[in-house]
Write a structure and sequence with these properties.
- One of its GO terms (cellular component) is plasma membrane.
- It holds the Pfam family ABC_tran.
- It comes from Erysipelothrix amsterdamensis.
- This is ATP-binding cassette domain-containing protein.
- By secondary structure, the chain is α/β, with parallel strands linked by helices.
- It has one domain: Rossmann fold (3-Layer(aba) Sandwich).
- 34% of the residues lie in helices and 25% in strands.
- It has seven helices and nine strands; from the N terminus they run βββαββαβαααβαβαβ.
- A hairpin with a 2-residue loop joins strand 1 and strand 2.
- Helix 3 runs parallel beside helix 5 and helix 4 packs across helix 5.
- It starts with a strand and ends with a strand.
Length: 207
């Protein structure tokens, strides 16, 4: 599914990743953990075609060294990769429905599917509400509902439970495991020890 071979990534004079290699198998649930500044989000962004290493090779679904914003990368992101951003990447002045439709771009539009996805994250009656009217925890769950709607093989998530209370955190745990059972590959960045305990594999990055 993902093969990373001896990549190095620097920002200015700071080395974030050096000669780093990693393999992630299809249908696995992998957590990337480690202290702040260890390169967790950078590594996730490289996997998600939002950044490139300075050197080394990255292979995603048998395609090697795709360039961000290229046609091939855009096709990969649209058809195969779902990304849950730490800041949720929602449009606050638009409705929840508008934000969910983004995940279904290029596919048949279904309001029933949106309502079902919102029910799965515990927000059954929120479709017509504006995002800015929602709490941080609600916005995080809207972003996860959008992820449920997006056709993809690989799910990348940066701190998916960071804004949630205990009850909703375990709701999201169950959804992630369900997605894995449906054949999806999950790569999650988190500090949450409970989520780390759910993973098949844990990658710990040092500063």
């Amino acid at each position: 599914m993902i093969q990373i071979d001896k990549i190095t990534k620097t920002f200015g004079n700071r080395v974030i990743l050096k000669d780093y290699s990693l393999e992630i198998h299809q249908n696995s649930f992998t957590v990337i953990a480690g202290p702040s500044g260890s390169g967790k989000s950078t590594l996730l962004n490289i996997m998600g075609l939002l950044d490139v290493p300075d050197s080394g090779n990255v292979t995603l679904l048998d395609q090697r060294n795709l360039k961000p914003f290229s046609r091939s990368a855009s096709t990969m992101l649209r058809k195969h990769i779902g990304y849950l951003f730490q800041n949720f990447a929602l449009v606050p002045e638009k409705t929840v429905e508008y934000n969910l439709k983004i995940a279904m771009e290029g596919y048949k539009y279904s309001k029933d599917a949106m309502i079902d996805a919102l029910k799965q994250v515990g927000l059954p009656n929120i479709l017509d509400q504006y995002v800015y009217q929602c709490s941080g925890g609600e916005q995080q769950r809207i972003a996860i509902a959008r992820l449920l709607l997006k056709p993809c093989d690989l799910i990348l998530a940066d701190e998916p439970t960071g804004s949630l209370d205990e009850a909703n955190k375990y709701l999201i745990f169950d959804l992630l495991k369900t997605l894995q059972k449906l054949g999806k590959t999950l790569v999650i960045v988190t500090h949450d020890p409970d989520l780390i305990a759910q993973a098949d594999n844990v990658i710990y990055l040092e500063t």
